Amino acid sequence: MSLVIDCHGHYTTAPPQHDAWRDAQKAAFKAGQAPPPYPEISDDEIRETIELNQLRLLKERGADLTIFSPRASTMAHHVGDEAVSDAWARVSNDLVARVCDLYPETFVGVCMLPQSPEADLVGSIAELRRCVNELGFVGCNLNPDPGGGHFNAPPLTDRFWSNWTFPP
Q1: How many CB atoms lie within 10 A of CB 109?
Q2: What are the angstrom distances between the C-alpha of 14 and each of 30, 45, 67, 133?
Q3: pTM of the full predicted structure?
Q4: Is 160 helix (H, G, I), strand (E, B) or coil?
């Protein structure tokens, strides 16, 4: 028996309400306001975005399993502040977890981290622990440039990132 694993899949077809919430979250931050509540997204809406897209393509191409994470291009760690990054990572990871729960034989979760460029890694470690321990994810996407190409934050290879004390 063989198992074909796609080791790099992103939720590129997330429901439009998810992306609309992100736009509203960014606008609220810019205006100094609280973001709106995250929208309700039904399991049927998730199934539609997956079955017509990623799942169909996976089967057509002969893959059995995908290591699945939020869309990389929307992680945007440099947008907003630490609270904005935390909230965006949480809702994005929760959405991926719902896909994995609906299709456990096909999708295995990998999380994004709230790597805000001016924050320590405590929030990222907490989100990683939540995703692994509570959501059953197997890893994380680690952005080597949390400054989003603006080069205003040290790269992850800098000793700046190793000077933090993490809670147990």
Answers
A1: 24
A2: 24, 9, 16, 24
A3: 0.90
A4: helix
